[in-house]
Amino acid sequence: MTDKLTVCVLGTGIMGAAMARNLARAGLAVRAWNRSRDKAEPLAADGVHVAGSPEEAVRDAGVVLTMLYDGPAALDVMRRAAPGLRPGAAWVQSTTAGLDALADLAAFAREHGLVFFDAPVLGTRQPAEAGQLLVLAAGPAGARDTVAPVFDAVGSRTVWTGEDGAAGSATRLKLVANSWVLAATGAVGEVLALSQALGVDPDGFFDAIAGGPLDMGYLRAKAALIRDDALTPAQFAVTTAAKDARLIVEAGERNGVRLDVAAATAERLERAAAQGHGDEDMAAAYFASFDGQASDPAHPGYRTN
Question: What is the band of 197 on the pLDDT scale with cuts at 50, 70, 90?
């Protein structure tokens, strides 16, 4: 009989909390830490041990999973956790960190004798809560059995992109996928804003494209969040989406590609955040089509239905 795998989750925001719950439900021993402890406390009801520090959370854990805001945040937390890290433990780095930051994270893993897995995920709050994320992973084949129970608990499928997490193949694929997601999200908001400006009933647009190649479930889902004023709780927050959009733009620039749509999307998201929508779902980029505080019910962009 083997000992139960202990998994530490550092970062229990929208995604990390859902992942921690699914890990516990899968029968794994789970410890969690979050910078704001109150966000982690509810996990105790699911059998998760809520730690007071990163060092306490990672102590003797066989797998450490980071799901934090960005690369620098992940590196900072792992440095704080360093005294408790077990040499040979697997580090599943699921933060969308960007390629530049990933190099620093991989270097930290080498310095501390950790087996590094570059493992961002595709999906938002709902698939995360259902354990239906798509895991994009790169890491050594010889250590994959260790992390397989973790990936199986949080995702419906794992796509392996390579054997060297430091090479960033999984993160590269995540940035490509997110470029499409963010572009589509921005387009949803602009369609609804233009419909309002031109006096077009949005239902007329949806009826016109129904069942054809221009129709897509994502369009309808994001449009419904805006039209039904259901932007909270966020599936994927505006501020985080803006950060990812900037990482995409930077990755393109460093590789000789100009990404005008991604740059415009980042600007729209940042404008929506400045209007007060930073914690709402990224579909709230819709409000960036209007000048002023679109959170005001008197504002023309407050409702679209």
Answer: very high
